[in-house]
Amino acid sequence: MDESLIEKQNGNFANTVLPAVVDSSKKYSVIYADPAWSHYNDMTVSVEQNKAKDFISRNPYPVMSSSDIKALPIKNIADENCILFIWTTDYHLSRCCEVIKEWGFEYKTVGFVWQKLNKQNKPVCFMGNYTLKSGVEICLLATKGKGAAKLVKKRNVRSLVQSQREAHSKKPDEVRNRIVELCGDIPRVELFARQKYEGWDAWGNEVEESINLEKSANNGR
Length: 221
Ligand SMILES: C[S@@+](CC[C@H](N)C(=O)[O-])C[C@H]1O[C@@H](n2cnc3c(N)ncnc32)[C@H](O)[C@@H]1O
Prior knowledge:
Blueprint: H1 3-12, E1 21-22, E2 28-33, H2 47-51, H3 66-70, E3 78-88, H4 93-102, E4 106-117, E5 136-144, E6 160-164, H5 173-183, E7 188-191, E8 201-203, E9 210-211, H6 213-220
Parallel strand pairs: 1-9, 2-3, 2-7, 4-6, 7-8
Antiparallel strand pairs: 3-5, 4-5
């Protein structure tokens, strides 16, 4: 791994430790993001902090504050016309709308609602310790550019996804499939990805091959 490259990328985001980085000056028509929101607060927690024994707010992975999420140079990888699908927690909904705006997009609608099921295919209803107990997660749809509506090729794709919970924070693969069904085979990238899927570029600190947001940013200026 190229240490200087990692250092450069770490410069902007304290907790970013990127794996193998692939150069990319590509622009994407679809951006699918599952930000590492922190849990019931709004802070950046680095890998090191998260591992520290006495750290109060432990998360299953490093997390980012909404300001750090906003600061990601997404404008530089988004094509002139682009659709953004972005997962939010109920707690961070208003912050997610700010992120959408800051990344250069306009909120349009709720893209997907994931109803989590347990192993018996019964709705899971014990998440959330703030007020109500929720069993769903939502993924907002936002667009950029006057021609973005034309990126939607099918009008019969459903927003409700009902599927069993898998690993912590893992979203159903079905959502990725439905995005392709909706928009067709156009340049697309998954942000905060854990795995690289066929047809998708990826960015994230756990994925084996990540695009370089900074490099894309420089190319975009
Ligand atoms: C909510 S999880 C994504 C889960 C994924 N969508 C799935 O279905 O498995 C957020 C991911 O962002 C990663 N992450 C946290 N901070 C990051 C950073 N600064 N740069 C890149 N990735 C980061 C986490 O390690 C985690 O893999």
